[in-house]
Amino acid sequence: MEAIGQFIPLILIFFIMYFLLIRPQQKKLKEHQAMVEALRRGDQVVTQGGLIGKVSKVKDGDEIEVDLAEGVRVRVVKSTIAQVLSKTEPAEG
């Protein structure tokens, strides 16, 4: 019975760590994945490197093309998009 009493603090620490660290991180990851999946042509984005540009093409797989300036188009891995500054309205049809 004493052995169970010694493990109770460890179990409590695990649950506290789960609810304060692990669970919020998983929620943030899911939100980021949803944001990346919702990217469309015309969205203004910020990459993790700090580059700001407009999505010019969403390719199959895990990359997009981003216009950084006039005549400057780069391929970017979708998961490196840090933030979407402005969304375009969906086309009606």
Automatic annotation (TrEMBL):
Family classification: Belongs to the YajC family.
Identification of the protein by name: Sec translocon accessory complex subunit YajC
Transmembrane segments: 6-22
Protein's organism: Roseovarius bejariae
Cited function: The SecYEG-SecDF-YajC-YidC holo-translocon (HTL) protein secretase/insertase is a supercomplex required for protein secretion, insertion of proteins into membranes, and assembly of membrane protein complexes. While the SecYEG complex is essential for assembly of a number of proteins and complexes, the SecDF-YajC-YidC subcomplex facilitates these functions.
Main localization of the protein described in the UniProt heading: membrane
A GO cellular component entry from the record: plasma membrane
Assembly description: Part of the SecDF-YidC-YajC translocase complex. The SecDF-YidC-YajC translocase forms a supercomplex with SecYEG, called the holo-translocon (HTL).
GO biological processes: protein transport
SMART domains: YajC (SM01323)
Key words, A-Z: Cell membrane, Membrane, Protein transport, Translocation, Transmembrane, Transmembrane helix, Transport
One Pfam family matching this protein: YajC
Top-level taxon in the UniProt lineage: Bacteria
Topology term for the membrane: Single-pass membrane protein
InterPro entries: Preprotein_translocase_YajC
PANTHER family the UniProt entry points to: SEC TRANSLOCON ACCESSORY COMPLEX SUBUNIT YAJC
Subcellular compartments: Cell membrane
